[in-house]
Amino acid sequence: MEIKPTSEINKAPEAMSATQVQPIGAEQLKKFTAVLEKYKAGKSNTERRILASESWWKLRNTTEEQKETNIGGDGGFTSVSGWLHNVIVSKHADAMEAYPEPNILPREEGDRGEAQMLSSIVPCVLEQNNFEDTYDDAMWQKFKTGTGCYKVVWDKGKLNGLGDINIERVNLLNVFWEPGVTDIQRSRYFFHTELCDKDILEQKYPALEGKLKGQTFVSTKFLYDDHVDTENKITVIEVYYHKFVEGRKTLQYCKYVGDNVLYATENDPKMAVRGLYDHGRYPYVFDPLFPIEGSPCGYGYIDLCKNPQTEIDLLKTSFVKNAMVGSAPRYFVQNEGGINEDEFLDLSKPLVHAPNVGETGLRRIEHDTLDGIYVNVLDRTIQELRETSGNTETSTGNIQSGVTAASAIAALQEASGKGSRDSTQAAYRAFSVIVWLCVELIRQFYDMPRKFRILGEYGTENYISYTNKGIQPQSQGVDFGQDMGYRLPVFDIKVSAQKKNVYTKVTQNELAIQFFKLGFFNPQMTDQALICLDLMEFDGKDIVMQKVSRNGTIFQKLIQYMQLALSFAQKIDPLMAESIGEDILMTLGQSAGQPGAGAVSSGMAESDHIAGIGKKEPGIVRNSRSRAQESTQPSGGRVIREDKDK
Predict the structure, then answer these.
(1) Which of 99, 189, 264, 518 could form a disulfide with 254 if both were Cys (CB 3.0 to 4.6 A apart)?
(2) H helix intervals, 10-158
């Protein structure tokens, strides 16, 4: 498919006349709102689950408030423990420990320079958007409600009107999609609603003055701890949808409130054909924890573990109430009427009036203590919750299995973190989509030079200027009189952890030390080292193999040049030839890790030992020594040596 350059895509159709009807008007807005209502009805179950999860995360605040109205000296006590809360905190810590970092790779050799520039610029864009805070909030959202959601758009108001990329976390209660779709890109429409102050809207859009009188749509809201006043606010609706224009799929956009269009790409002659974004995708990224068929949202740890948590709370409630009954003796006091229920239910009342108590008129209320088996049931329920969530004692650093060695503990913790690593990989996939959207927005909008401070080699600071010229569609020229069209530079995105955990750092450091001790970096052992590295699996293996191979190549060239210098010296100055031969021996000895090897020429035969295999002196060295000796012998007494390895 031929890809046209941006300059050709930007060609707008002729401006519509004043009498021409706008494509998006009041009738179209009513249709949008009707579709939105259908989408909201289809999302009702997801919204109920999200609201319930948030209440569980807050240790069920509404239940705590209702306790004050309960009758009884114990206040209607219900135990609310934080086992499930601790699960989410631990998983969030694992996610932030593996905070992602993008690496943009080219698909063609000619795009390598642009890929390197983008690999340095995109992290700057993320940092300017405080993406670490956004990622932190999205991870809380993901583990609590089951889904993290991001929005990646172009904000033309940033940088004093120059515009820049904007990345933010999205409240799941404010977005709506076609029920039954798993990928939001397949949804016919995608809606995003937001409450805005009426006076602010009227200031921004003067044509709205006096028209903002009623709500046409109200989205579901969280049960906030603070009172949220929505009296002077109104819902602003954004709708994204796909439309084919001139045989090309475009992303169209409309922002409206009530029956008033604030902006619509179809009403803008400059954007009607091109669409909002060239990439043509809804600018939202969903990151589900445990996926569900027929929905882009997943379910979280609260949905998974709330039943064990309920059992724990019920058992602990029974234990506490039983302990309260047994710790304070209570008595029946004879009374002419029936048992006083209020006194009986109030554990703070030591005397309860009742008939037929006994001869003395006073009898102690019997109390049955709980059997130890109930404690075992509680412990097993706690263990069930921890095993179900993967938040075991090993993963949290509480080793009680008799393991004392630090390396063994670290290995157990690494093995127990498989669930967290799986969730992290899913977050990386969502992050790669975010980076891809950023690259596409850079391709479309970075037409003016922008300054960036990037980190160069060894952490040096570099200041660069960048535009999107190098990633625009590029002409492929004309072959045999045929226009070859345009080529669009395309990149692959690889995500890795920016900050690795302590165990990973120690492992990598120890591995590097072992490589050094075994001679992997010895240029004389390049071939053997590459074979061994090829059979291994560890992070950064490709980089190590490249450096080992490059080191061996440079060493071979050095020996060749020294041999060439030796042959020239033999013809010019025999004494110089002998000195050069010693320099070659010294170089080989130092490369083998023997500082004094120059003084022990014959000791080079056993310079390298990997896996118990010794290496003989290289033939080139023996030849060099032979030539040096020949050049210093009398003319009639030349020594002839045969190179058996040749």
Answers:
(1) 264
(2) 26-42, 44-57, 61-66, 83-97, 112-128, 131-145
